[in-house]
Amino acid sequence: MTKYIGVLSGKGGVGKTTVAINLTTALSLLGRDVILCDADLTKANVSLHLGAHRFKTTLHEVLWQQATIQSAIYYHQSGIRFIPGGISSYHAKNTNPEMIKGLKSHGDGLAEAIILDGPVSDAKTVNAFLSLLDELILVTTPDLPALTDTLRVLHLAEQHKITILGVVINRIHFNEFELEKDNIQAMLGLPVLGEIPEHVSVRAALKNEKPLVSHDPSCEVSKAFKKLASLIIGEEYHAIVK
Ligand code: ADP
Ligand code: MG
């Protein structure tokens, strides 16, 4: 059975796509059969992070019943498989939030798990996304505005029968102006799954159009993503890359 694992945040720019891409890469490196899917139907951008955006077939064509899902799966040079969303205004315009629910009938059996980069949008769109999931990972930055928005999506998620695995705190500067891990844990009532530092290597990987975990495997942020992947599958993390 295919598990649908969503990555969601309350606001944009906190690193949701970065987490989804690197989690998928780290899980693939651990030998897991996973596919990354861009499930933000109005602001798809996974493919842009991976340096590829001219696709004849995207998730949109699949959901419009114009193509098979197999024809929308692509291999990235890093080795991961991904399903891009259409990035044009035509794709965004011809989308309704309920459409994402159709992924279930196409995705079942494709892989052990599909990692879904979720939408930052209105409650209707977020609820449609949540209804698809088995498990959810929230991503936030350690500041009050982001956390307040995270609480809003958490409240929506709690109305669905899904397992909320916890929260990833991303873009940490480790300074006195940030909310601490314990505060975040207490405010959300969720375990912290990972603490990812703010690091220039993330932008370097984006510039190089690769997941950081494959672009710079030994950097501290890559290690944090690999640790996160190990935690998600219940394995102990061992840093084998020097
Ligand atoms: P979202 O999907 O939540 O909108 P992105 O993953 O696109 O966020 O990240 C927004 C920007 O922040 C991107 O330019 C990305 O490279 C950068 N970024 C994300 N996480 C980090 C990090 N840990 N350190 C440095 N830059 C980061
Ligand atoms: Mg994004």
CATH T-level topology:
Rossmann fold
The strand line-up of the biggest sheet is: 3-4-2-5-1-6-7-8
Number of helices: 11
Write down the Rg.
17 Å
CATH class: Alpha Beta
What ligand species are in this complex? adenosine-5'-diphosphate, magnesium ion
Second CATH tier, the architecture: 3-Layer(aba) Sandwich
List the secondary-structure elements in sequence, H or E. Answer: EHEHHEEHHEHEHEHEHHH
Low-confidence stretches: none
Mean pLDDT figure: 95
Tell me the number of strands: 8
Fourth-tier CATH superfamily name: P-loop containing nucleotide triphosphate hydrolases
| Number of individual domains | 1
The amount of beta strand, in percent, is: 15-25%
Give an overview of the whole structure.
By secondary structure, this protein is α/β, with parallel strands linked by helices. It has a single domain (3-232), classed as P-loop containing nucleotide triphosphate hydrolases (Rossmann fold). The chain has eleven helices and eight strands. The protein has helices spanning 16-29, 46-49, 59-63, 89-93, 103-107, 123-130, 144-157, 181-188, 200-207, 212-215, 220-232, and strands at 3-8, 34-38, 74-75, 81-83, 113-117, 135-140, 163-172, 192-197. Strands 3-4-2-5-1-6-7-8 form an eight-stranded mixed beta sheet, sandwiched between helices. Strand 6, helix 7 (144-157) and strand 7 (163-172) form a beta-alpha-beta unit. The longest helix is centred in the N-terminal third of the chain and has 14 residues, at 16-29. The N and C termini lie far apart (35 Å). The model has no long low-confidence stretch (mean pLDDT 95). The structure holds adenosine-5'-diphosphate (ADP) and magnesium ion. Residues 9, 12-18, 170-171, 196, 198-199, 202-203, 206, 221 line the site of adenosine-5'-diphosphate (ADP).
